[in-house]
Amino acid sequence: MINVNQSLLISNSSITNPEDDSVVSNDFSTVLGALILSLVFLLGFPGNVFIVWSILARIRRRSVTTLLILNLACADGFLMALTIFFIIYLAKQTWSFGNIMCKGLFYLCNTNMYASIFLITLMSLHRLVAVVFPQKLSVWVTRKIVSRVIIGMWVLVMLFALPSLIFRDVRIDSDEKNRIRHVCAPNHTVARHVRFQYAFETVAGFFLPYVIIITSYVIILRRLRKTKFRRKVRSENLILAIVVMFGIFWLPYHVINMIQVAAEWYPDDSPTRHTLDHIAKSSRAVTSALAFISSCANPVLYTFAGKSYIKKNGFAFMAKLFEGTAQEQTGNKKSRNKGKEDCTINTDVSIHLTQNGTVGQNTSCNVNI
Questions:
Q1: Domain coordinates of the chain in residue numbers?
Q2: Residue 301: which residues within 8 A CB-CB, separation 6 or more?
Q3: What pLDDT is recorded for position 306?
């Protein structure tokens, strides 16, 4: 609870704050945001917990893709658990959890944003190595290397999210009806802080990772056109669906970031700045709530991808989706052994390799990502 002295200090410091409006200043936006987050919580939290349980309890030998999906589900599930605080914030239109929670919750949300896109990027890079350099996969992608990369990724995302911890505080605000309320809002005191934080979020947390992802898939598609590629597994389409869904739901958030950055280049009394500020502030709650949807969309994607397993395997269908059945692996092995050299790597892509590892038709090598 904020005492009187803290409230006066926060109130006085916000007088010169260029971001006097808050995300809870628009009634329609906050109500819509609260409804979206409520649906996201009801769908996303149990869905991601189920994914984590399926991988940890049902799968003994976990592939690289499965380990990355496990980390993604853990991050998304944890974020879903935090949505209850933001639902209360939007519904009450006042922050009731103190300054430490204000900083901490938004920091954790930003950490999840970076973690999600970085994990998806790692999935795409792993796919690239498996298709373009399959003979190097067992050397470059070992369990030790993958573990170190994932740990390093988590350290990096925690560093990248620090601006959301620094540039946010609780302050006293009042609306047009002179109702006093606490808001958890950015505390940028100069324009360059606004430009730095939101531009950095968009470039590091969206633009650059997507450039890597798109480049990876362009190279993959070009390589596959030169081979007799046999699509055998669902993970390629599944990863592409994850990439597309993340982009759809996070793009509006980053568009608002860029609008807010653009507004800071205009003078304070500029009509253009006023218009851009109004667009950004009135849309922030809805676009942030839409971004949360990406964390609950993955369980839905996995369910549709694994629907053929549901009747046969029941609650184990998710595990079967990620690892494939033993019968399918046995069948693939028998077909590969008919007059051709056999090699197996744990991936989901089937390509033809020659004896020296170059693309050709003489030797069949099954690669299952």
A1: 4-327
A2: 238, 241, 242, 245
A3: 67
CATH topology for 4-327 is: Rhopdopsin 7-helix transmembrane proteins (1.20.1070)
Residue 353's pLDDT is 36
The mean pLDDT values, 10 residues at a time, for the chain of 369 residues are 38 39 67 87 90 83 84 92 91 90 94 92 88 82 88 96 92 72 85 90 94 88 68 60 86 93 88 89 84 83 70 66 44 40 39 39 41
**Strand 363-368 to strand 348-353: parallel, antiparallel, or no bridges (unpaired)?**
antiparallel
pLDDT of residue 22: 58
Residues constituting the chain = 369
What tokens does 132 get?
A: 């373009």
- Report the predicted TM-score, pTM, of the whole model to 2 decimal places: 0.76
- Report residue 103 as tokens: 């900083």
- Whole-number pLDDT of residue 369: 42
Instruction: Measure the CA–CA gap between 352 and 14, rounded to whole angstroms.
Output: 64
Residues contacting 249, CB < 8 A, separation 6+: 290, 291, 293, 294, 297
pLDDT at 304: 73
Q: How far is CA 125 from CA 140, 264, 317, 364, in A?
A: 12, 36, 27, 23
Q: What is the pLDDT of residue 192?
A: 87
How far is 240 from 305, CA to CA, in rounded Å? 12
Which two three-digit tokens encode residue 143? 């369990």
d(C-alpha 138, C-alpha 23), whole Å:
49
What b/e sequence results for 249-275 when a residue is b if at least 16 CB atoms lie within 10 Å of its CB, and e otherwise?
Answer: bbeebbbbbbbbbebbebeeeeeebee
